[in-house]
């Protein structure tokens, strides 16, 4: 009985060590110091923050205030933040999807954006921060000789990377329309229409990160006042 227990215990340990040993070492790159040429000083950050406060915030606030009839003041967004675990999970997610599609991620693009002046997006999803300035993050890869943002499409168990600005071809909607109108429809649809699985006839996974915590509120304290 004791021998059988010892054998099972050793087998369990062997399995655990084999699992640890087989993990991809590239998922934990060695520490090599700060990223070269990408770290700025606090003084530089403060100067850039102040320049945005002086050259952009008043313009945004004046325009948005002109659209409000109730006299309330619009608060321009100063930053968006994500907790570290969300960022780690996001990196793991897009690397997993890229591996399934047999492509490499080249860069992450941070797009400046605005939530619409509505309680819902066109697809019916709720708008988290109505009218607020925001950002969203798009991973890129090389497709057709260009570095483009991409999604991952699955058809019959096969995964492939597709550019997010790929034109959607729908014969019923496009019948009788000119090429110019079709192009205009694609441009107006933007990034998210290309991730419509029903329109594409397959399952498409978006890799775009959004909906972080926007500020203000709470007030910005790292670089002084919001404005």
From TrEMBL:
Keywords: Signal. PROSITE patterns: PROKAR_LIPOPROTEIN (PS51257). Residues 1-20 form the signal peptide. This is Uncharacterized protein.
């Amino acid at each position: 009985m004791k021998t059988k227990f010892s054998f099972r215990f050793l087998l369990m340990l062997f399995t655990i060590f084999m699992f640890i040993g087989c993990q991809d070492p590239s998922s934990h790159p060695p520490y090599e110091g700060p990223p070269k040429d990408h770290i700025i000083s606090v003084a530089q950050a403060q100067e850039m923050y102040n320049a945005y406060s002086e050259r952009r915030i008043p313009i945004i606030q004046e325009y948005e205030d002109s659209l409000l009839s109730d006299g309330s003041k619009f608060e321009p967004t100063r930053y968006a933040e994500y907790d570290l675990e969300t960022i780690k999970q996001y990196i793991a997610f897009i690397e997993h999807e890229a591996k399934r599609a047999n492509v490499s991620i080249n860069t992450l693009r941070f797009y400046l954006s605005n939530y619409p002046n509505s309680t819902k997006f066109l697809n019916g999803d709720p708008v988290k921060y109505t009218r607020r300035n925001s950002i969203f993050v798009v991973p890129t890869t090389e497709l057709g000789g260009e570095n483009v943002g991409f999604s991952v499409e699955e058809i019959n168990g096969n995964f492939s990377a597709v550019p997010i600005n790929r034109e959607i071809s729908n014969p019923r909607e496009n019948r009788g329309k000119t090429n110019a109108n079709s192009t205009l429809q694609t441009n107006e649809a933007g990034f998210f229409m290309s991730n419509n699985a029903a329109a594409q006839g397959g399952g498409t996974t978006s890799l775009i990160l959004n909906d972080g915590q926007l500020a203000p509120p709470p007030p910005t304290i790292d670089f002084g006042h919001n404005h």
